[in-house]
Write a structure and sequence with these properties.
The complex is a heterodimer of chains A (332) and B (210). Chain A has 13 helices and six strands. Chain A has 332 residues and is mainly α. Among the domains of chain A are: 112 residues, Orthogonal Bundle (Cytochrome Bc1 Complex, Chain D, domain 2), CATH 1.10.760.10; 119 residues, Cytochrome c-like domain (Cytochrome Bc1 Complex, Chain D, domain 2). Chain A has a two-stranded antiparallel sheet with strand order 1-2. A two-stranded antiparallel ribbon of chain A has the order 3-4. In chain A, strands 5-6 form a two-stranded antiparallel sheet. In chain A, strand 3 and strand 4 form a beta hairpin. In chain A, helix 3 crosses helix 7, helix 8 crosses helix 11 and helix 10 crosses helix 11. Chain A is globular, with a radius of gyration of 21 Å. Chain B has 210 residues and is mainly α. Chain B is 49% helix and 0% strand. Chain B contains eleven helices and no strands. The chains are: A mainly alpha (332), B mainly alpha (210). Chains A and B meet through strand 4 of A and helix 10 of B.
């Protein structure tokens, strides 16, 4: 009730303030407001890239290759990607959109310490994280052409943004307040069938057209693994609330977003590459991460993640996931 | 895939037991050809439609999608004054059959006249990339690679007449069409300008259907 009032009040205010009373859209884009003092970035578009004559044609080529890899990451399937995901599936709108984990802040805030692996990470290492977890894959080698192209696309999107400014508008997926009721599997399943199944399938396995993934699977071998940020219930809830169904941010209530995020996060997916001993042990070791997932906990009578399934990927852990020591002897 | 669908429908029919008699069987293109006698004056025997008169091309459409549209038109949940009296005469079985018939066709449609290159460039952008600064996802993101359709929910657009695509986007925008699942099309159509609509339609119409 109060929320409805709030929306009406906001609309009334914006009409008063704006002067021109545009017809209220039937399907509004409902996203959180940016906070006062936050840096709001206007990421450049491909049109600007084409038009910018100050960019060397070789660089433009590399940036465009990075864009192409970002949009069609499946071209790396079997080499660096071992599931059915593309970068753009989580980073909507070409990686430029606020509340859709825009990728340019990785350029302006790294190198920095990350709690995920308890060490200082470079941009390349951050991208390697996406390949290892979200793509259930093996990162392109540091310094490789593939890595350079992806870095170039990220860096170009960050054009003119202040370095090490951390108060960024629309960073990540945002967050959704904890709902009144504890997230619930059954309710989540109903939300899923009503709002998600049309694209992702009643079995959550996505849809393909002539062998090309059209809508990505949300669990199972083709989906992100147990180490991916999206496997955290709160992260999935925020992504869903602010991005889904496609083109309708804010359609679901906070309760619905949490319920359906719980339902999706309670399904099986490929093993966490950091797996050691058993799921409970791994959960405990990475408590800061898995404290937000359902991994290693019992849901519907089974412990999630207690399996040796790495999906299509013929190994568990990519070699590049390693601990930094800052012991210079390593470099000799 | 059609075989798989048939099995599902048969199973569904069997499991419904007493109600099985009221459920239409899978569409039969041969029977549908007879039913199509009432359609072909406007849509053509091969489903080519008629651009000038805004009669849509049917051969590119999925049978399940067409059947749903016919059911919606018959029930009045999709309003189209020209089509309504025809849909009203069809039984549920005829709807399945005639949809299967037109889906099995492959029409020859003349290439539309060349459009303004700037309009085509905008159309290409909307079809392939959308315009996210206005929260418009690309056509392809739901209608499939090259916008050739996905299943029974997202119809093929490539090769459809521009006049028809335009008229439907406008119908969503002004609220006269609203039979899309989850307002998926409405949300996007209402964010498109008249120029966007013209551009996307012109570009899509010029794309090969296969």
């Amino acid at each position: 009730m109060s929320k409805t009032f709030f929306i009406h009040a906001t609309v009334a205010l914006s009409i008063l303030a704006g002067g021109t009373a545009l017809a209220e859209p039937k399907v509004p884009v409902r996203l959180p407001d940016f906070k006062l003092g936050q840096y709001v970035h206007k990421a450049p578009t491909l049109e600007e890239l084409e038009a910018d004559e100050s960019i060397h044609p070789e660089l433009r080529k590399v940036i465009l290759y990075g864009y192409d890899l970002f949009m069609n990451t499946q071209q790396l399937r079997g080499k660096y990607v071992f599931n059915e995901m593309n970068c753009r599936n989580c980073h909507l709108g070409e990686g430029r959109m606020p509340w859709s984990a825009p990728i340019w802040p990785a350029v302006t805030t790294l190198p920095n310490y990350r709690g995920k692996n308890w060490q200082v990470n470079s941009l390349e290492e951050r991208i390697a994280g996406c390949f290892s977890y979200s793509m259930n894959g093996k990162p392109p080698p540091y310094g490789s052409d593939t890595m350079l192209a992806l870095v170039a696309y990220h860096q170009w999107l960050a054009r003119s943004a202040p370095i090490y400014e951390s108060n960024i508008a629309g960073r990540g997926f945002g967050s959704v307040p904890k709902p009144a009721q504890e997230p619930d599997y059954k309710r989540g399943e109903q939300v899923f069938m009503a709002n998600c199944a049309i694209c992702h399938g009643a079995d959550g396995q996505g849809r393909r057209v002539n062998g090309v993934v059209q809508f990505p699977p949300l669990w199972g071998d083709g989906a992100y693994n147990w180490g991916a940020g999206m496997s955290r219930v709160d992260t999935a809830a925020a992504f869903i609330k602010h991005n889904m169904p496609l083109g309708q941010p804010g359609r679901l209530s906070d309760q619905e977003a949490w319920d359906v995020a719980y339902f999706i996060s309670a399904q099986e997916r490929p093993q966490d590459p950091r797996y050691e001993q058993n799921a409970e042990f791994t959960r405990e070791k990475y408590k800061n991460f898995h404290g937000r997932t359902l991994y290693g906990t019992e849901v519907n009578g089974r412990v999630l993640g207690e399996h040796a399934n790495t999906g299509e990927k013929p190994f568990l852990k990519p070699d590049v996931l390693r601990a930094r020591t800052f012991n210079l002897d390593d470099e000799s | 895939m059609p075989k798989f669908k048939l099995v599902i429908q048969t199973l569904a029919a069997l499991s419904l037991g007493a109600h099985a008699a009221t459920l239409p069987a899978a569409g039969d293109p041969e029977r549908g050809k007879q039913t199509a006698q009432v359609c072909l004056a406007c849509h053509g025997p091969d489903g080519a439609g008629m651009s000038a008169a805004n009669y849509p091309r049917l051969d590119i459409l999925d049978a399940g999608y067409m059947a749903k549209q016919l059911r919606d038109i018959k029930a009045g949940t999709r309003q189209t004054p020209i089509m309504q009296p025809f849909a009203a005469t069809l039984t549920d079985q005829q709807i399945e059959d005639v949809s299967a018939y037109y889906a099995s066709q492959s029409a020859t449609v003349p290439q539309p006249p060349e459009a303004d290159p700037e309009l085509m460039a905008l159309g290409r952008k909307l079809v392939y990339r959308g315009d996210w600064d206005r929260y418009i996802p690309s056509c392809n993101s739901c209608h499939g690679p090259e916008s050739r359709g996905v299943g029974s929910e997202f119809p093929a657009l490539a090769g459809q007449h521009a006049s028809y695509i335009e008229s439907q986007l406008r119908a969503w925008k002004d609220g006269t069409r609203h039979n899309d699942p989850l307002d998926l099309m409405l949300a996007i159509a209402e964010r498109m300008t008249d120029e966007d609509i013209k551009a996307a339609a012109a570009f899509l119409a010029a794309q090969p259907a296969e």
